[in-house]
Each structure stands twice: as C-alpha cells, then as structure tokens.
Amino acid sequence: MIREKLNREWLFTKESPPLMSSLTDGSETEYETISLPHDAMVHEERTPDTGNGTQTGYYPGGLYTYIKKLYAPTEWQHKTVMLEFEGVYATSMVYVNGDLAATQLYGYSGFYVVLDKYLEYGQENEILVIADNAAEKNSRWYSGSGIYRNVNLLIGAEIHIPADGVRIQTPSVAQDASAVEVATDIRNISRQKKKITVETTLLWEGQPAGTDTLSVTMYGREDETVRQTICVDHAALWSPDSPNLYECVVRLYDDAELLDETREHFGIRKLELDAQRGLRINGNPVKLRGTCIHHDNGVIGAATFEKAEERRCRQLKEAGFNSIRSSHHPMSKAMLNACGKYGMLVMDELTDMWTTHKNPNDFALNFSDCVDTEIERMVNKDFNHPSVILYSAGNEIPEAGTARGA
Length: 406
What we know:
This protein has helices spanning 306-318, 333-342, 364-382, and strands at residues 2-5, 10-13, 32-34, 63-72, 80-85, 88-89, 91-96, 99-104, 111-114, 123-132, 146-147, 151-156, 159-160, 166-172, 177-188, 194-204, 207-218, 223-233, 246-254, 257-266, 271-274, 278-281, 284-285, 290-293, 323-326, 345-349, 388-392. With 406 residues, the protein is mainly beta. The strands form seven sheets. A six-stranded antiparallel sheet has the order 3-2-4-10-7-8, with no helix packed on it. Helix 1 (306-318) packs parallel to helix 2 (333-342). The chain starts with a strand and ends in a 14-residue tail after the last strand.
C-alpha cells in the first residue's frame, strides 16, 4: 500500500465533542491547530491534587479530541483506504463523518482503521479521534496522553500488498552465500480475475543484490501469499558491531503498469542460543550489555519523534550498551528503526501487567480480551527488524507463579 504521514493540521481541544451534532461546524468549542505526534499531558498544569501523584510526575490525565479534514478524491472509490495510528493513549475511539469506525483499548499498540465504507467521495471527510486518559492512576510511570505517535494514510489499489504484508527471513546465513526468504501477501478487492507479476529486489547501498520475478493469478475477492527465495552472495551481515541494512522492494505489475510497491529494511543475520555457548549472532558469541527505557523523551513528553529516538539510541550505544528492553510496552517503530541503524539489540515487551492490577484503572481489566490481538500486532510490527532478538510477555507479573498464570 502507498503510505504517507498524516500528521499536519489537526484540530485539538481538551473538551469532549458535542453530542449528536457536526463536530466542528456550528460548534462553540475552541480548537487549536497542531501537528502530530502530540502529547497532551505534557501541556497540562502539574498539580499535587492529581490522582496520578508521583507516578506521572503530578501531571493529570484528561479526555482529548482530535479532528482532521480528509479529502477523498473520486478515484478512491475503487481502492481501499486505511489510517494507521502508531500510538494513542490511553483508550481511543475513531469516528469517520460521525460514525464510529474503530476503538482501541491498549494505549501502547498501533492499530489500523479501514475507512472505505465511511467515506464520502469527491468531498472532505471528518476524522475525529477521542483519546481518553481521564481515568487516573492507570500507569506506574509518565504515560503521556493523546495521539503521541505518527498517523499514516495508506492507500491500496484493487490489487495491492496489505499493511504488514511483507515478511522477510534469513534461514541460511554464510560468508559466501545467504538465502533471503520473502513472503508477500497480495489482496484482490475487485471481482475480476487478473494475472499479475511480482518483482522482488534486494538492494545493498542502493544497488541490486538479488532479484526474483514470478507470475500470480489473483482471483476476485481473494488473498494469496507469494514466497520467494533470493540468494545473496558475500552478504554484508547485520550485527551490533556492523549494523548493515538491506532494502527489500516488492512491486506488483499488470503488464507494464505498476499496481503497488512496498519497501522494507532488513538485516541478514543468524541467531543461535543454547546453554553451552549462550547467545551467538552469525556464529559469534555476544554478551548482552542491556538497559531498560520507557517511551517518553524527557522534556518533550511522550511524543515520539524519529530524531529524538535516534538520539537516545545513539547515546546509549556510545555509552557502551548493546541492547535495550522496552519498559513496559511494545517499542515504537521509530525506536526500532534507530536500533536497526545503530546496532542495538532489542527485547520487546508486551505489557506491565496481566490480570492483576498494579493501579486501579490499568490495562489488567482488558488484558484477557486483548492479549492475542496485541501479541500479533507486536510481532507483525517487529518481524523484519534484525535488532529484535527476544520478546517479553510481561514485566514483573505476579501471577506467573500461579497455576493459571503458568
């Protein structure tokens, strides 16, 4: 799918939207024009009276409304259109032209919203997001509030590669030749059968390092998964000391017409772990010199900016660390990209609790209903990142020692 950021010119207010009326037209609510990512909590006035107390540094929670006008051209009628929210804290509701299109209960996980059936084509549409962090004492650390990570617009043609639709593995790694396996999901949202070409190219420093092309018959309203294996001679391997990144470009063609294109960065590396030799990467033993980091960025709050994440990762690497555990939530895409670039190994963590509360209004209430979905989202997000070597199912989980917890 074609992807672009949708971060500019959002309207923001601390008030909840007016009931049963157009959310901006004729409303007396005052809106501020902002750009995303945006942390609403860091702009609140600190007060000793907040129920959050020391846990968020005396910053209170709140309920916040974000509105974006989105023009939908008529050519979108035969395409699929999605929004990706990389992070909204704490719970969120997404409305399109006044209709509820999606809800999200976990504030640290990204999620997608399909807009197709809600859009009015040839005119402006209204995207409204309610970010509800009003239930105080829901976090043991500074959480931030609102749409604190990127929002992306994804557009797919009738035949396209869906979001998270390219998965790259390196099952065979050697000095002379390495095998790269690329699995690509392809979706046909039309009723027409069509024969297309899938072209997958691996790039090293902008130059082709291997390619594979094949033909696929896409039946109407069906999905297919195409698997290709490409040999890379004398590959530049990824490791903490040599974080070499390749780019995988997958293109779909109908004859000479380009239907879709997806690009993913990845590293060629081999992981091994056993009790005798410990952790090895590309056959070399690696000792983890690790640290734990939360998602906030100091004085700028929880807003996740690529340059800020790169700065944190670079400083930790320069200080002698080679690994990071995300505390206590799935790591942002921006930080994962930084870890891949600078050679920082990652233990990505799912959550801070399972079914036992650590705060009265934390995620324990929803964990059992959401856990499978959130694990799948975390793994989909991480799959192509060579930095991710471990997953944590949770932080300081007291019920892990119980029969049900085990």
